[in-house]
């Protein structure tokens, strides 16, 4: 993402990245719901249903890898900044000593733990809960849909707030400098 991001479009690209990330969760939830409804096996999954799920998600994984390789190449910009492997690893460890990077790494670790819990552990607990046994495995599909809708709505609202904040700060600076000059 760094190769195609400039300071002017960093927040937009970041929002698109997270939106697509949770859009895939939305797609996975819809796929699970269609498979469970189509086969009628939402209580107990047979090997056939597991095969459908695996094949469907594998096809889209392969398609996403093909799309990744078809992204535009900005090699002239990256060729100018090519460094040796040893130098690059050294820079990474130097960067890890920066306190801002330590703060970011703690935030990313927290985000990883939360996502792994809410995307894998929590839905599994829901599917084995005795009070929700009637819903069967469809509860996992519904949970994926609700989680992805919430994440996409949250990302959309944060990007809109970011745009509004930037616009307000530009107007404030413009008006502030205008009143000082008078």
From TrEMBL:
It comes from the Eukaryota. InterPro entries: Ion_channel_UNC-93 (IPR010291), MFS_trans_sf (IPR036259), UNC-93-like_regulator (IPR051617). Coiled coil: none annotated. It is found in: Membrane. The keyword Ligase does not apply. It is a multi-pass membrane protein. The keyword Metal-binding does not apply. GO terms for cellular component: membrane. Keywords: Glycoprotein, Membrane, Transmembrane, Transmembrane helix. Pfam families: UNC-93. The chain crosses the membrane at residues 20-37, 49-71, 101-119, 139-158. Belongs to the unc-93 family. This is UNC93-like protein MFSD11. The lineage of its organism: Eukaryota, Metazoa, Ecdysozoa, Nematoda, Chromadorea.
């Amino acid at each position: 993402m760094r190769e195609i991001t400039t300071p002017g479009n960093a927040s937009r690209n970041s929002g698109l990245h997270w939106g697509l990330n949770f859009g895939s969760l939305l797609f996975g939830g819809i796929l699970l719901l269609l498979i469970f409804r189509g086969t009628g096996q939402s209580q107990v999954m047979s090997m056939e249903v597991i095969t459908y799920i695996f094949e469907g998600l594998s096809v889209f994984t392969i398609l996403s890898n093909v799309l990744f390789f078809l992204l535009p190449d900005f090699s002239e910009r990256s060729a100018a900044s090519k460094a040796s492997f040893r130098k690059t690893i050294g820079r990474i460890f130097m960067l890890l000593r920066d306190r801002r990077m330590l703060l970011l790494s703690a935030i990313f670790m927290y985000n990883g733990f939360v996502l792994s819990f809410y995307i894998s552990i929590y839905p599994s607990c829901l599917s084995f809960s005795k009070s929700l046994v009637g819903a069967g495995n469809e509860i996992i599909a519904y949970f994926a849909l609700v989680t992805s809708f919430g994440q996409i709505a949250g990302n959309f609202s944060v990007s809109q707030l970011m745009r509004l904040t930037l616009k307000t700060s530009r107007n404030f600076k413009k008006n502030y400098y205008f009143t000082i000059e008078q």
